[in-house]
Design goal:
Elements lengths: L2 E8 L1 H10 L6 H12 L3 E4 H10 L4 H6 L4 E2 L3 H13 L15 H13 L6 E8 L20 H8 L2 E3 L1 H7 L5
Parallel strand pairs: 1-2, 1-4, 2-3, 4-5
Helix pairs in contact: 5-6, 6-7
Length: 176
């Protein structure tokens, strides 16, 4: 019988929000738990997240450097899935933004790739995207895919679980 654990794919918004709400100098235990998840291989992100963070979030620079191993490079599967996501949900890339990098489609593509990848371990992983974006489907269940631009909405379309950082704390039964 396989044990099930969450494999978290984290978005830029969650890392930024974690640092804003739980600065590591005041809440070191939060960051120790995050570190432990990363070391266990249960917290990952596409390389585009690293690029977004290095673009303008100096406060996370040391954390990104220390946790470089969580950032996954693109492979053919992730590139294909990113193209699929962008063709179905063109607004997910937020092309109107001034940002140099747009990691959202890559976050979903990595989640799709991990979800579809055959797992040959004793532990079965449940894929969960961690983002602090708020979806629009809750108040508008008939939202057309062309208008979906938030990670939770696109995750819902693909049957991928998503949560915010507090949901991650609850899932892992962390108490501070």
């Amino acid at each position: 019988m396989h044990e099930t654990e969450n494999l978290y794919i984290i978005d830029t918004s969650s890392l930024i929000e974690l640092q804003r709400r739980y600065p590591s100098d005041i809440f070191p235990s939060v960051w120790e738990h995050i570190h432990d998840l990363a070391i266990a291989g249960r917290l990952i992100a596409p390389i585009e997240i690293k690029k977004e963070l290095l673009e303008g979030y100096d406060i996370l620079l040391q954390w990104v450097t220390d946790h470089d191993f969580i950032f996954r490079e693109f492979d053919e599967d992730i590139i294909e899935k990113t193209q699929e996501v962008l063709s179905r949900f063109p607004r997910i890339a937020d092309s109107e933004s001034d940002k140099l990098f747009h990691a959202d489609p890559f976050v979903i593509a990595l989640a799709l790739a991990m979800k579809e990848q055959p797992q040959q371990t004793l532990v079965k992983y449940r894929i969960c995207v961690v983002t602090n974006e708020k979806g629009k489907l809750i108040g508008n269940p008939k939202l057309h895919p062309n208008n979906m631009k938030k990670i939770p909405d696109v995750c819902s379309h693909y049957g991928i679980n998503s949560t915010d950082h507090l949901g991650l704390f609850r899932e892992e039964n962390w108490l501070f």
